[in-house]
Amino acid sequence: TVNNGALCIGAASRILGILASTMSRWDDAEVHFLDAITMNERIGARPWLARGRFEYARMLMTRDGPGDRRKALEQLDQALATFQELGMKGFMEQALALKLRAQGIDPTVSQSSIDAVAASVYVDKPDLRQHAAPDGTVTILFTDIEGSTEMTERLGDRRWLELLRGHNAIVREQVAAHEGFEVKSEGDGFMLAFGSARRALQCAVDTQRAFARHNESAEEPIRVRIGLHTGEAIKEADDFYGKNVILAARIAGEA
Fold first, then answer.
1. Number of Cβ within a 10 Å radius of residue 204
2. Closest to 99 in 3D by CA, of 252, 253, 249, 255
3. What share of the chain is helix, strand, coil (3-state, %, to 5)?
4. How far is CA 16 from CA 22, 47, 69, in A?
5. Strand, coil or helix: what is 10?
6. Where is the Guanylate cyclase domain (predicted)?
7. What was the pLDDT predicted at 7?
8. DSSP 8-state symbol, 129
9. Is 90 helix (H, G, I), strand (E, B) or coil?
């Protein structure tokens, strides 16, 4: 027995937009993608609407004309929200990687622990309002070990894990001493939140001093990078995690 079925691939204009993009016919591609977005929104084809927004953003990033990155970020924010809600993990990861590129971070090139933590919290979007200052701001602090990839290869798994445990203990001791909150940690990377910019800055200073003391007698010195940025957590989560968190991560990456 053969049952009849139906397959929906959304508006045909999306396919035309992809085809025009491969031929570098950017203006035609933009018209097709916008038509597809309008149609898929009208018929309620949410997976295809999100994919159309993502593919339109990818075209804008490739064209890279005046204002294209701003428009791409707007499309990616909406696509990411839908991908996350519908559990489209593969597309969510692709869209997040493209958004990081649009914000000046290339996740395909030597991604650091800080980049990994920043990408992870963008997906999770933990609510930090309870850790905010009275004016609604939160100071984000990122830290990781400088040259950790090379150290891992040189030390081997056992010695690296021992060093990592010592590193993590020092970081967490300083976070507790300065009333911070550990938002996320992956490997040697930490994202921390503070309701006071002064406490966050003092935590950064004291953390560096703690590692300096540790290094005086350590067989393997640990050098850490730290970056901070203050933003308003009361705003929309996409805005906070799309701007303030990424900026703090980039500052730490340049430290």
1. 23
2. 249
3. 65, 10, 25
4. 10, 18, 22
5. coil
6. 139-252
7. 46
8. G
9. helix
The Cα–Cα gap between 146 and 188 comes to 9
Give the DSSP H or E segment for 184. strand 181-186
The domain locations on the chain are 12-102, 113-254
DSSP assigned state of 160: H
DSSP string, 25-90: -HHHHHHHHHHHHHHHHHHT-HHHHHHHHHHHHHHHHHH--TTHHHHHHHHHHHHHHHHHHHT-HH
> Mean pLDDT for each 10-residue chunk of the chain (255 residues)?
51 91 94 94 93 96 93 92 85 83 61 62 66 79 86 86 93 96 85 91 96 94 90 53 52 53
Second CATH level (architecture) for the domain 113-254: 2-Layer Sandwich (3.30)
Cα–Cα distance, 37 to 18 (Å, whole number)? 13
Residue 83 in contact with residue 91, Cβ under 8 Å? yes
Cα(138)–Cα(240) distance, integer angstroms: 10
Residue whose token pair is 């990616």: 76
**Any idea of the CA torsion for 233, 235, 241, 242, to the nearest 10 degrees?**
-150
Is the pTM higher than 0.90? The answer reads: no
Please tell me the predicted confidence (pLDDT) of residue 236: 46
- The helix (H) or strand (E) run that includes residue 224 is strand 224-232
Name the burial class of residue 76, with classes exposed (0-12), middle (13-18) and buried (19+) by CB atoms within 10 angstroms of its CB.
buried
For domain 12-102, the CATH superfamily is Tetratricopeptide repeat domain (1.25.40.10)
The CA-CA-CA angle for residues 203, 206, 222, to 5°, reads 110
Residue 6 is predicted with a pLDDT of 44
